[in-house]
Design a protein that fits this description.
139 residues, globular
C-alpha cells in the first residue's frame, strides 16, 4: 500500500523543512571558537555564556551544523557532537521524506522501531554527554 497524494505532499513539506537548517547553515562561516556562529543570523550571544562563562546545552549546535553542511564532519563533531548527530538526522529525514514523496514508501516500521522510549533515553543521554563535553572543551 502506497501513500496517497495528500500524504506525499506532506512528505515534500517535511523534507524541505528538514533540509532548511542545513541550507541556512551552509551559508554561515563556522566560528573557530566552536560557539557563537548563530550570531551571524542576528541572534544574541548565548545568555549562559555571557552570564556564567559556560555553554548552554545547545552551544555549538549552529557551528556543528555549519561544519556538517559544508562536509567538515570531523570539525562538526569537535564543535558539538550532538549537533553533528542532529545534522545527520536532519539530512536523513529530508532524504527519507523526499523518497517517500516520490515513491509512496511508508515508513511506519522504521518510525516504530526508532520512536521507542529506550531510543529517546539514549538521545537524551547523548545530549547531556555532549553538553558535558562542551563544558570541558570551552574551559
Amino acid at each position: 500500500m502506497r501513500l496517497p497524494l495528500r500524504q506525499r505532499l506532506l512528505c515534500v513539506v517535511l523534507g524541505l523543512a528538514a533540509f532548511a537548517p542545513l541550507v541556512i547553515a551552509a551559508g554561515l562561516e563556522p566560528s573557530p571558537k566552536g560557539v557563537a556562529t548563530h550570531t551571524q543570523l542576528g541572534l544574541p550571544a548565548c545568555g549562559w555564556m555571557v552570564s556564567m562563562g559556560k555553554p548552554c546545552i545547545s552551544c555549538g549546535m549552529t557551528t556543528a551544523f555549519a561544519h556538517a553542511a559544508n562536509g567538515s564532519f570531523v570539525q562538526s563533531v569537535v564543535a558539538q557532537p550532538m549537533g553533528w548527530v542532529l545534522a545527520v538526522l536532519a539530512a536523513s529525514t529530508g532524504f527519507a521524506c523526499l523518497h517517500a514523496a516520490m515513491t509512496g514508501w511508508r515508513a511506519e516500521r522504521l518510525l516504530n522501531a526508532v520512536m521507542q522510549p529506550k531510543t529517546l533515553w539514549i538521545v537524551a543521554g547523548g545530549l547531556l554527554a555532549a553538553w558535558g563535553y562542551k563544558w570541558v572543551a570551552v574551559g
